[in-house]
Amino acid sequence: MTDQTNSSLIPETTTITNGHGESSQSVDEQVPEMPGYLYAALKQLGPKEGFTEGKFAIEFDFGSSKGDGFVGQMFKATLSEGDKREVYLCKIPPLDDARREQFGSMAAFAREVMVYDRFLPTIFEYQRSKGIQSPSDGFFHTPRCYHAHCDESAQESVIIMEDLRLREFRLWNKHNIIDHDHGTMFMTHLGRLHAISLAMKRDQPKQFEQFKLPNPFDVMLKADGPFRNMILSQLQMVIDALHEQDTLERAKMEQLKEDVFDELARCGSGQLAEPYTVVGHGDCWTNNMMFRYEEGIPKEIVLLDWQVTRYVTPVQDLVYFIFCCTDADFRSKYYYEMIDIYYTSLSTMLAKLQHDAGELFPRAALDEQLRVFGRYGILMGMFLVPMMCTRNEELPDIEALAHKMSETQQLDESFFKTTDSNQEAYATRMRAVVLDCIRYGYF
Fold first, then answer.
1. Maximum distance among all alpha carbons in the chain?
2. Where does the record locate the signal sequence feature (predicted)?
3. Closest to 282 measured CA to CA, from 322, 316, 319, 323
């Protein structure tokens, strides 16, 4: 496609904003030139939003800060005509060719476009057909999406959604441990989301079939894939975080190093979790949710970033969140309470959908799923915990790594290395993940 971008509409400089709508840098940085297909999508959207065709301007700003995105880039688009101004967030594949190609961005975008275009509207309508109309009673907690399109062959994709910051939603600081109120809110809505899958499989099996998406990480497990060395390196960091006296834990992690690719495939197999498999969010950490507050208390949650949604055990979302976003102290106080909150919410939602949790997903089945798949907490913790312990300015240069992969077809180093500033925090938190997974009987 020929790039029709009108560069005169892009400001020469702009202040980068972080996920909280605040300046993340004190100096101005030039916004890169936007692709023509993004302009085309916004020009198509404008008249639908009350602008006069051909009469409104489009300006761009950065939509997030370093460390807030991986396989996509976020930009804020402002449409203006006279006194009328509207702001949208635009999610597009990385502008850098190597980053887009090496990290599988187009496949991820195709998946997320499907979620916004088909999956979410379908489950919203399914809930309404059961008499669930209010967000307070069901799961409607996603950003409003105005446009979602993906053309993998042309390497073009754009998702245009509302800027939740305009409705006073805020990101949780990813460097902080989640607290009880936020954890409770997440577990409540996760239970509702999973309940919809269980009920819809029974009520509308043919309709639901299209949403049985495979594990997107299977490509990383190929024998000659560029990520295998990186995975082994991350796991070695886990072993190095253990104390010398942690002999049992070290032995188990050394064994995991031998089996890690099989374990990643096993935990990602939807078939192994049947009949309790659900459509999971797949990326349940604090950067992929926003909260709205009243008097400092979270009152509403929205789940973002559906690029790795897949048909899988419900335990994946549970342990991903608990072991990546909490620490040993939180888990010692609230671990079993969080599981109870999740299951109570799931059971209540199933009842609203006219089903019995005792039949579709008994509590004993959840406990068994945790026992069988709970070690996924370590498998995800080894990637997320180091990043959550690292200051944004010390995060790796994703584009530089992508270019290195293009040249060598391998990523030999740990994706997120520890530094002098985060080594102690990482070691403490990662060691606790291992100890707790073993303590709960998941390893």
1. 70
2. none
3. 316
Is residue 187 within 8 A of residue 314, CB to CB? The reply is: no
Q: How do residues 127-182 score in pLDDT, each as one tens digit?
A: 999 999 999 999 999 999 999 999 998 989 999 999 999 999 999 999 999 999 99
Quick count: other Cβ atoms within 10 Å of Cβ 408? 10
Q: Is 395 helix (H, G, I), strand (E, B) or coil?
A: coil
Pick from 231, 190, 270: nearest CA to 378: 231
CA distance 194 to 200: 10
Rg, C-alpha atoms of the chain: 22
Exposure of 397 by Cβ count < 10 A (0-12 exposed, 13-18 middle, 19+ buried)? exposed
Relative orientation angle of helices 315-325 and 423-439, to the nearest 10 degrees: 140
What interhelical angle do 180-203 and 315-325 show, nearest 10? 170
Query: ∠7-10-11 over CA atoms, to 5°?
Result: 135
